[in-house]
Amino acid sequence: MEKLEMLYEGKAKKVYKTDKDDRYIVEYKDDATAFNGLKKGSVHDKGVVNNKVSSIIFAILEEKGIPTHFISYLNEREQLVKAVEIVPVEVIIRNLATGSIIKRLGIEDGLVFKEPVLEFCYKNDDFNDPIINEYHAKAMNLATESELAKIKEYTFKINDMLIEFFKDKGLRLVDFKLEFGRYKGDIILSDEISPDTCRLWDIETNEKMDKDRFRKDLGNVEEAYKEVLQRLNI
Ligand code: 5GP
C-alpha cells in the first residue's frame, strides 16, 4: 500500500490517502492537547504507545463482533484503516462520575453509576464539542435514527467488553470517548481507544493511568501510558 498525500491533521493523528480509495493510513503523533487545544505539549512516545494500545483493542473488538475501521498495524506509528467518513457525533460512556459531568451536574467525584451513562457531543472544536441529545443529532443531520441506534448498541457492548478486559489488567475503566464512521453503508467504530480517550484508574490504588496526568500536570505521563501498554501485553 502506497502512502499518498495527507488528507487531514488532527490534534493527535494525521490521516493519509493511499493508492486504494477505500484505505487510509493513520499516523499517531506525540503531540498532546487538552481543554480543546488551550493546553499544548508533547509526550515522548505517546504516538507509539497509543498506536499499539489502539491496535490491540480494535483487533479484540473486531474478533468479538464489533465492526471497526482497523485493518492492520503497519509500524510503530502507523495503522492501515478503512476510509470512513467520520460521524460528527462523539460518544462518551461513563461508569464512574468524574471530569466534566461532576461540574455539570454537581455529583460526587468517583460516584459509581447504577448503570453506564451515555452522552452524545457535537464534534465541533469552535464550540468545545457541546453535549447534545439524539433530537439535535437528527435535526442537525449529524446522524440518522438507525445510525444512532447502531452507535448506542455498539457503544454499550464495547463498554461491557472493555470493563472486563481492563479489569483483568488491574485497571478500572472509568469513562471513554468513541467515534464512529460511515463505510460502504455501514456504521463502524473508528478513531482510537487509548489512554488519550479513556480514563483508566489502577484498581488497587485508584492512581490515574491516562491523559488526566497531562491535563492536571500530575507528572509521569509517559510512564503511565507505557505501564498501560505493558499490562495489555501480559
Ligand atoms: P470529560 O467530558 O469528563 O472531559 O471526558 C469524558 C471522557 O471522554 C474522558 O475519558 C475523556 O478522555 C474523553 N473525551 C471527551 N472528549 C474528548 C476529546 O475531545 N478528546 C479526547 N482525547 N478524549 C475525549
TrEMBL record:
Superkingdom of origin: Bacteria
Enzyme class at the top of the EC tree: ligase
EC number: 6.3.2.6
Domain SAICAR synthetase/ADE2 N-terminal positions: 7-231
Gene Ontology MF annotations: ATP binding; phosphoribosylaminoimidazolesuccinocarboxamide synthase activity
Pfam family, one: SAICAR_synt
One BP annotation, GO: 'de novo' IMP biosynthetic process
Pathway noted in the entry: Purine metabolism; IMP biosynthesis via de novo pathway; 5-amino-1-(5-phospho-D-ribosyl)imidazole-4-carboxamide from 5-amino-1-(5-phospho-D-ribosyl)imidazole-4-carboxylate: step 1/2
Family, per entry: Belongs to the SAICAR synthetase family.
Name the UniProt record assigns to this protein: Phosphoribosylaminoimidazole-succinocarboxamide synthase
Gene expressing this chain: purC
